Every structure is written in C-alpha cells, then in structure tokens.
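Dear support,

We are seeing what looks like truncated structure output for some complexes. This example has two components. We would appreciate it if you could run it in full and send us the complete token output so we can diff it against ours.
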Amino acid sequence: MLIDINAYVGHWPFKQLKHNTCATMLENMDRFGVELSVISNLNGIFYKDTQAANEELYKEIKSNRKFSSRFIPFAVINPIYSGWQNDLEACSKRLGMKGVCLYPLYHDYEITDPACVELVKRARDRGMIVSFAHRIVDSRQRSWMDISKEMSLKDIMPIIREVPDAKYFVVNAANSITVSEEDTEILKKTDMLFDTSGRILSNLGEMLKRYGQDKFAFGTHSPILDYLCGLLRIESLYEREADAKTKQLLRSGNAKRILGI
Amino acid sequence: MNKSLSRRKFLSGTSMSVAGLMLESNLRNVGLKKQTGNMDQEESSSRDVMKEVMKYRKIDAHAHLYFSPDTIEEQLGFADRLGIEKLSISRPFTGDVGTHQDVIECNNLIINAIKKHPDRFIGFFTLIPTFAKESLEELKRCVDAGMSGYKGYLQVKVNDPSYYPIIEKLIDLKMICFMHTYSGLGRGGYRTKYGNLYPNETIPEDMIDIAKRYPEMTFQWAHIGAGGDWEYQCKALKDYPNIYIDTSGSNNEAEMVNYAIKYIGEDRIFYGSDTSYYQGVSKILDADLTDAQRRKIFFENYNNVLRKGGYNVD
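Here is the complete output from our reference environment:
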C-alpha cells in the first residue's frame, strides 16, 4: 500500500498543469498503485481569502463518492489574514480536513509571527498536521511574477522549536535538511515526516540513519513534479539500507501513524 | 514532548461534523482493507517499479566525476542502483575564469577514470577555447587517450569565433559538441533579457547561431532540468535538427519530457542525470511514452549519435 503525503489539486498561474483534479490525479494514483493521497488546493496560495480554496477542495471531493475514500484533504490558511481562526475551525469540523498547509513566503509573514504560532498551536490542539513545503516550484525557472525565495529546514526549525508537540510535514525538501545537533535531537523527538519528493534526498539511506526510519514517507509533490521520483528513492534502497519492514513504513506505515488512520 | 495520538483521541479532539466523519469513515475503511492485505501484494508493487526501471538499457548522456576520493564508486553506486549501463562523464572547470592548467587537471581525472572502468565510462574532455593553441593540443591529447566527445562550460559562448577551430576538429572526429547551457531568469528578468548570471553562458540563441553555421555538427543542449526555463528552451530549439537536448538536472517537473517530445521530437532527446540520478530516470518513466520511445530516449538516440564516430556501446 502506498500513501502519498504531498499532492495538490488546483492551478499554478504560470504554467498549465495536468493531473491537477481529483479525477485526473486518481488516474495517476491507480497507475502507480497509490491508495491514498493527502491533497490541498494550490489556489489557496494565490487567493487572498484562502478559505475559498478550501471550500473548492471540499466540493470537489464531495462530488464523487470515490474521492472521499481516496483523498485526505488539507487546508491552506494564511494566519495574518482576518478570520483565519473561524476558517481553521470550519476546515477541521465541517470540511473534515486533517492538516493545514502554511506558506509564509507566499503569504508574506515570518514563521514565528505570533499569529502563525497561534495557528500551529490550534492545529496541534485539533490533532491537525502542519505542513511546510521548501518550495512549490524550482525558483530558477519561475515566472517573472513568482517569488524568488525558497525555504530550507533551518527556516522551519523556529516554529518546530516553538511548538514541538505539534505534528509536522516538511515536503518537497529541495534544500538543506542539515541542522544543528541540538535541532536534530528536537526533530527526532517531534512527530514529523519528510516526504520523499524533494531533491535533497538523493541519499535516502543515509537520511534514514540520521533522522530515523520513522521520519520519512512517500510523497510525490504531484502535479508539480513527476509522479515517480519519490517512489524510486524508496524502492531502490538496498536491503542493507532499508529492510522490508522499513520500506513498508516509508510506503504507508509512517503516514498511517501520523494521520491516525 | 509530543506523543502519537491514538485514533480515538484524534477523533475526539477533532469534533468532526457529519461530512468530516463521512470522509474519515471512508478513509478508515480503505485503511483497514489494505492493512489486512498481505505483504506479497505490498511488495509486488515495489518489485514492479524496479522491474520497470531495470527493463531499459541506459546510457547517461550527462554525468560527472568530481575531485573527491570516492567519486567513481559514488557515481557507479547510483548507476548500479538504477540500471545505468554506461555514463558519459566529464569534469568541466566550473569557474567563470580558469587557466589551461585547470583544464588539464579536469581532463586527467576523466582519462584516469575511463582507463580504470572502460566498460562503464565514456570520456568527454573539456577546454577553454580562448587558450587557442593549447586547446587544440589538449584536444589531441584527450582523443589519443580514448576520449569520445567534448563538454564545454560557461567561460566562452559556443558561438564565439574561438570555438570555430575546435568545432571543425570535432566534425572531423564525428564527436558530439556538448555544451553547458542555460536560459532562465538570469540576473535581471525572463528570457535572459538582461543576461544570465554568467555573461558567457550559452543561451538557446547562441546555440542556434552556431548550429546554423555548422549544420554537420551534432550539438547537445545540456540539462533542460537544471533549473533553466525548459519550456523556453524546447520552443527555441524546435527547428534545428542538429541540436539534441538532454533531460538531466535536479528539476523533475511533471510534463517536462512530454513537452520536449512535443517540440523537439522523440529522436532528438537524450536521457541524462547530471548526477540527479533518481530524477533522471523517473521523469522518463513517468512521461506518456511508448515502450519504443523510452528505449530511444534511454539508449538508442544517444548511441546512434555516438556510433557516427565509432564511440557507441555494442
């Protein structure tokens, strides 16, 4: 069984995407044997009122019975925009969302902004996972209207230090995930997962040794990135790097644990 | 510190509505059904992926070695893992200003590697063409040492007149002229409007210019996945049959290969990694290609070009 912890529907304003609806993503999932996908709506990065994107996603999932058994929706919330507290509650209670994606660079706030800290604490209290992406697209080939900055794990650590008992995803780890020894120890104790889509995971075997086998899970960053790379990083591990049990954790076990399914 | 929440605790803390519970209920059913599935079923899907990877013969048209003690073992380790039979290796000098001695040291690294592993490596030499006399001497030394093609970097644009004698020699030897290239935001804006970060980096328009001057020369446009604007590159290079592209680079955006097929065509695309080995393979396997197209891109297109000069794999 495969669970993809990093996928999206919606549009990217600077490039045509394929497989960016529940229906078309499901085709890819079936093609590669993925049973469940965590999805959020890319439109939420660009709408000032992100709740409209969350409602869109909810509606899309509700539109076909099959979708609700294959997709795990995450919200997109901007904690410095008015009404986010109500939006978070609605996403959790009414829309059945199990996590929240935060975009400090796109939504233009510091990760330790009191509102962000408050949101992460509320997400923690609701059992929701907080997800940060290092980047959505490679900034080297971005549109001239897109942002130029990307994140690394060091940029995310301040919020993890601030709210260490929340649950986190760090997805599309394209940049460094090397942090101080002290922060490495904090991460080991945190209930968090890196997904396997990011380019920095060129040596997953070594990363498993550094952070532990409970810290990684299959992810695609689809439909932005190709669907297969995150899976190849897992399946090409040698037995000495990851035995059958560890691979099972990477394919779905760790995702099930943190998602509570 | 955090403790993993049990599912019961998770639900009670979430206070889900009917709609939320419906989603949750469906998820639970899926999860339970699959949890009871046997390991054979679980493992069979993974075996299939690696079987698909290993099914295709591959020549990596864009690989590198580095000045580090384990470089050969490291690169071959990735190649073995993903069934890459041969790697075209080079070590260009990557600074924007270099000496001829830098070039010689880079080439010596590759010469030693191809001597050690002739069954795995195809050697590409590098030059800085502004060292005109020395470059032609170095070219001869590298060819005599068994090198099979040329890799240029960003010190001199490929259409600079200092390249003419080198390209004419490469035509005689039926070797590929493989250039580091870029087009993206550069320092100022889209379409390299204000120039790339490195002013002498080859952009599509430079390669088109030289490809028109030497239609008998085979050019390789490096790494559409190395971060440049691959849509711009594919559209720009569409109509030039002596320009091939390689798909290497760390950027494995979906649709990149499909887009390249649309504009460049299935016969002018080489598979490559630029040491991003997983992305190199996954973007070809993920694309909407026929089996025959995958064979062309992973192996045949590149091998056919190498064959012109007798540098091919049997």
